[in-house]
Amino acid sequence: MKQNTPLIYLQISTAQGPAECRIFARFVLGKLLAEAQVKGIDAELVTETADKYGILSATLKLEGQKAESLAQSWQGTLQWICPSPIRPKHPRKNWYIGVFRLPDMPQMYEMPSENGIEFQTCRSGGKGGQHVNKTESAVRATHKESGISVRVESERSQHANKKLAVMLLAQKLAEHHAEQAENFTQEQHAQLYQVERGNPKRTFVGATFKEK
């Protein structure tokens, strides 16, 4: 990943709309990728659900200094005004899809090495007599990158507590990632059904998708 450049995930959704919406969504995907290329933005198609007419949904990853402005120019409801190209007698001429920004993809932290952990020692609490109070055997381990920390005082020696703290910290990081990944998936799924008709961000007209 490039340094100091935003990383943005966009989802194109037809909200399970008819085939005409899937045709429109396929055009929007191509148009968005083309704009990204012109602006020097790295664009990657992460997921795509397609059929013979077009796409039901797609997720794009954008990276670059202009990624934010590109994303904002597409986010919202998009409208295509056109008689159905596959159902000539269909009365409907307005087709809607949505482009949504997903929350940041959860970061997968690697198994922490001691260089990436800040250790602090302190006296163990609880019962145990004078020996417990005088010996700084308890250890607090903080993962520097995420700020996640654990405190261990169950073992008698500082060395044993430190070793256990690293193991527990790795477990806590994995749990944190799993929770964030689940939230990301739920948000991604929810966006599939949230296209609103009316007040479009951008409108395209006719079989050539000329923008108004």
TrEMBL record:
InterPro entries: Pep_chain_release_fac_I, Pep_chain_release_fac_I_sf, PrfH, Prokaryotic/Mito_RF
Source taxon at top rank: Bacteria
Family: Belongs to the prokaryotic/mitochondrial release factor family.
Name of protein: Peptide chain release factor H
Coiled-coil parts of chain: none
Gene Ontology MF annotations: translation release factor activity
Pfam families referenced in this protein's UniProt entry, alphabetically: RF-1
NCBIfam families in UniProt: release_prfH
Gene encoding the protein: prfH
